[in-house]
């Protein structure tokens, strides 16, 4: 699928699953190189595509991009084109092209048949972000994904047959696959394509009131942006239908909890979730029978042997370490595509601890048996040999109204590592000595002196993946003069140049 988030995308995926075919997708805002980095590895036979998609009120064409992709994919035997707009697109230039309307069966009273297949039959091929090389192609099992995601929906999200559930996502983010499984609970799905801030920051809350969304899913960055943008739905919207808010994509700041309860809705479970594309689910998330603690993910998920280990593989409580799962779980990838002997698979998860899945998050299990995520463990800073999670700095910096967003790296300097903070400032704000001093004081007073950045540098933009995650490792590579192997995985690769040969980093 090279599709927007629309009903035909789900229909195509379900049809593929019903015959035992394997589905893989990315959103049409991927460039040709980004799509080929994914589809070129798996060599699909059939592509579903729309003629375009919308973003910020503009219709953007997809077919020219698809034509370029097809020239590099000799495996393709059929291209099904969905008309996203009322006007039927010209597909004469699309090899093997057929309109969606003509592809569908016209047989009346067609009886559906479903192939009966093993529990581990491959349902999806998912992709890592691919910022350090070609994306890993993770083959996901049908039975394991279904049972794991339905567990998360029913037990941890309290999803019921009568509920309407929405998650802001594209078809290139795992939350699309997660949302689709809501159909297994017979819930009603709400699909949205386009910018969540068009025509303004109230768009998603308008949607909640319009279609009576009960379970509202979004990203931590969206909640923070609404807070910074002065959006106050409690004053402007009804939101009586909304029963819970889900958040993932990055750690949810304690101040974002305050914002939700003070400005969005006061009597609602706010469920921060953390897991990954690797398992198409979570290790920690919501729990409808437990209280929400400010700044914490509410609960470890049932059916997962989730733990936090120190470097020697000993279990930790109330201290920071590696997120692990020390027993197998249903939604583990079956394999990586084109990975003889499972060498890449084992290197990704099992190199650090013997026969224990090491997920790559730096985190802590709290006294409430919840979890706090401090960032990716491969991005952990080590000034003076002390491990610091980047999220610990973001938590302090991004609550300041002058700062829209930050990015932290460790720079090799004079035989040690120093903390460097890049900031994207609000409109009309400049980084003067007073603001820099207040940033450092905020970090020192609320974290530790080790967290205080040695350099604070303003930048016009911060590079991120197409699914919206900031790319600390790519910036770290640029700062140290190393090649970024796969810029096509980024939504705004041009932003990397802002960090190259930065004069503030030379002293």
Structural category: alpha/beta
Q: Compute the number of strand runs.
A: 23
The number of helical elements comes to 14
Mean pLDDT: 94
Q: Give the terminus-to-terminus CA distance.
A: 49 Å
Spans with pLDDT under 50 lasting ≥5 residues?
none
Sheet with the most strands, sense and barrel status: 5 strands, parallel
Helix content estimate: 25-40%
Rg over C-alpha atoms, rounded to the nearest angstrom: 23 Å
**Global morphology:** globular
Proportion of β residues?
15-25%
Record the strand order, biggest sheet.
9-8-10-11-12
Report on the structure:
This protein has 507 residues and is α/β, with parallel strands linked by helices. The protein has helices at 7-18, 32-42, 63-71, 100-103, 142-156, 174-180, 203-211, 220-228, 233-236, 254-264, 343-349, 390-397, 433-446, 472-479, and strands at 46-50, 52-55, 58-61, 78-82, 97-99, 122-127, 137-141, 164-167, 188-190, 215-219, 244-248, 270-272, 274-276, 281-285, 299-300, 306-309, 321-325, 335-336, 357-365, 371-376, 403-413, 416-425, 455-458. A five-stranded parallel beta sheet has the order 9-8-10-11-12. The chain has a four-stranded antiparallel beta sheet with strand order 16-17-19-20. A hairpin with a 2-residue loop joins strand 21 (403-413) and strand 22 (416-425). Helix 2 packs across helix 3 and helix 8 packs across helix 10. The longest helix has 15 residues, at 142-156. The chain starts with 6 loop residues before the first helix and ends in a 28-residue tail after the last helix. The mean pLDDT is 94.
């Amino acid at each position: 699928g090279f599709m927007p988030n629309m009903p035909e995308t789900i229909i195509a995926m379900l049809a593929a699953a019903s015959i035992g075919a394997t589905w893989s997708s990315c959103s049409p805002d991927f460039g040709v190189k980004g799509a080929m980095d994914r589809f070129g590895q798996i060599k699909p036979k059939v592509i579903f595509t729309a003629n375009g998609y919308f973003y910020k009120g503009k219709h953007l064409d997809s077919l020219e991009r698809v034509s370029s992709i097809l020239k590099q994919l000799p495996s393709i035997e059929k291209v099904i084109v969905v008309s996203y707009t009322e006007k039927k697109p010209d597909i004469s230039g699309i090899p093997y092209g057929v309109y969606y309307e003509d592809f569908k069966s016209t047989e009346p009273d067609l009886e559906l048949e479903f192939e009966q297949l093993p529990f581990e039959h491959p349902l999806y091929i998912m992709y890592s972000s691919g910022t350090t090389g070609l994306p890993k192609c993770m083959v996901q099992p049908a039975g394991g994904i279904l049972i794991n995601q339905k567990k998360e929906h029913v037990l941890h999200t309290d999803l019921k047959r009568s509920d309407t559930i929405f998650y802001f996502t594209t078809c290139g983010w795992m939350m699309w696959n997660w949302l689709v499984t809501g159909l297994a609970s017979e819930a009603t799905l709400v699909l949205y394509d386009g910018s969540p801030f068009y025509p303004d920051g109230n768009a998603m809350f308008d949607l909640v009131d319009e279609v009576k969304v009960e379970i509202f899913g979004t990203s931590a960055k969206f909640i923070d942006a609404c807070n910074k943008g002065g959006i106050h739905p409690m004053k402007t919207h009804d939101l009586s239908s909304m029963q819970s808010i889900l958040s993932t994509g990055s750690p949810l700041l304690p101040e974002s909890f305050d914002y939700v309860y003070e400005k969005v809705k006061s009597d609602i479970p706010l469920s921060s979730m953390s897991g990954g594309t690797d398992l198409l689910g979570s290790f920690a998330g919501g729990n409808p029978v437990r209280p929400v603690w400010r700044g914490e993910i509410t609960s470890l998920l049932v059916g997962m042997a989730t733990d936090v280990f120190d470097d020697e593989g000993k279990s930790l409580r109330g201290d920071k370490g590696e997120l692990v799962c020390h027993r197998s779980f249903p939604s583990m990838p079956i394999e990586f595509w084109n990975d003889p002997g499972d060498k890449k698979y084992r290197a990704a998860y099992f190199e650090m601890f013997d026969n224990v899945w090491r997920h790559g998050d730096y985190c802590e299990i709290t006294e409430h048996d919840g979890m706090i995520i401090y960032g990716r463990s491969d991005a952990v800073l080590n000034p003076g040999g002390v491990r610091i999670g980047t999220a610990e700095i973001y938590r302090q910096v991004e609550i300041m109204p002058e700062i829209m967003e930050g990015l932290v790296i460790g720079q090799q300097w004079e035989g040690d590592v120093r903390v460097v903070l890049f900031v994207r400032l609000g409109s009309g704000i400049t980084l003067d000595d007073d603001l820099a001093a207040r940033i450092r004081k905020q970090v020192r007073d609320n974290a530790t002196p080790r967290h205080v950045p040695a350099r604070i540098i303003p930048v016009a933009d911060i590079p991120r993946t197409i699914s919206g995650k900031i790319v600390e490792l790519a910036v770290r590579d640029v700062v140290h003069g190393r090649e970024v192997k796969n810029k096509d995985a980024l939504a705004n690769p041009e932003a990397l140049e802002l960090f190259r040969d930065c004069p503030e980093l030379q002293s």
